[in-house]
Amino acid sequence: MFPYCPKTRLHDPSLPFSWIALSFLSASAGGFQSGPQSARTLGMGGASTAYIRDLAVIYYNPGALAQLDSLTHVSVGGLANMRRTSFLGTDSRRLADQELSPLPGGYLYASHAINDKVSVGLSVNTPYGYDTRWPSDWEGRSVVQQARLNTLFVQPTASVKINENFSIGAGFVYAFGKMTQQYALGQYDARDVTAQFTGTGSGMGYNVGLYGKTADKLAFGISYRSPVTLKVKDGKATYNNVPALDAGRYAPSAKLRTEFNMPGALAVGMADNVTKKLLVTFDFTLSAWSRYDSLTFNVGDAPGLATRTAGRRYEDAMAFRVGGEYAYSDMFTFRVGASYDETPIRDEFITPDLPDGNKLGGSLGVSVFFSPKLSVDAAYQYEHAADRTSRANQSKSSVNSVGGTYRTRVHTAALGLSYSF
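Above: the chain's sequence. Below: its structure in token form.
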């Protein structure tokens, strides 16, 4: 039946550099995950720590890899994540909608059993990202017009079967990220006077996991993904269409150096084969967002030039996920999932780069098996974020926002192909 069943308006010319810090902080503070990293896992609502009927287990719990059968498995697919946010100004009562811009992503997983005890695998996926595009004339244009982050994680993995019921595994993570940030210089009436920041960075981490079966029908998993710090060493700050009178205040371009972080996560999951055809999974995840207390950016070639530090005080956040899978026939398997993701962002730190709220989600998925070794997998997830209201506070230079209410909805879709040989 299954190909691999187990056996986030300034007038001081130096201050715009702090905006990029704020943007990254809001983005990396929560809600910027691009969705569960496979079509099958998406259909299960992301409850995947003890779910081993999907090669995405290499990413979610490397300890389970050795529990797959002796075949070689490959899973490849595409993801699309679309976040739609509306903003209603507190004083202006003006409504602004983000432009629709799906964030593309994808995944590639492969595994091979070296022998009865040891298996190796490779995970290539895009677990984090966002693409925020506000109208160029919206009231928060001096905070942000566009903000984008793309990431790519590569994880070679090895797993060892201790016995028929328990296995452990570990993976080395190399991460790459690319960012773009643009906002209008608020001291000018012309809307095309903008600052744009771009950069790429890389970092390393690790992923470890344990998988076990306590009975024929019940299994559990525990995994820990380490924090990853992406270091941007050769970024660029570019100013466009600055009036000639102020050209000396804004260099056409300057070097940008910074670090931005992604949190570690501890996950615990269970899977229960309720019947021969029905499997139910449950996950609890604690993400260590509290490490985002502040972030520092340096702009220019001289050390310490235009250094800006922004405080954020994020909090650790929990997520709960549950999924169900029903093998309707040899050809069709259906999935359903539900999730609740807690936001780590306090009300006083909401910014328009990526306004985040507690999210309640639901998902549906299906696999079509053309043979015991070949299937096409598809899934869709909808998430409803709680409305968030921000209040502009001019006394806090490190908290730059626009007074108003944000309403966010998130759509994620995935399509993949799984093959065993």
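The first strand starts at residue 73 and ends at 89.
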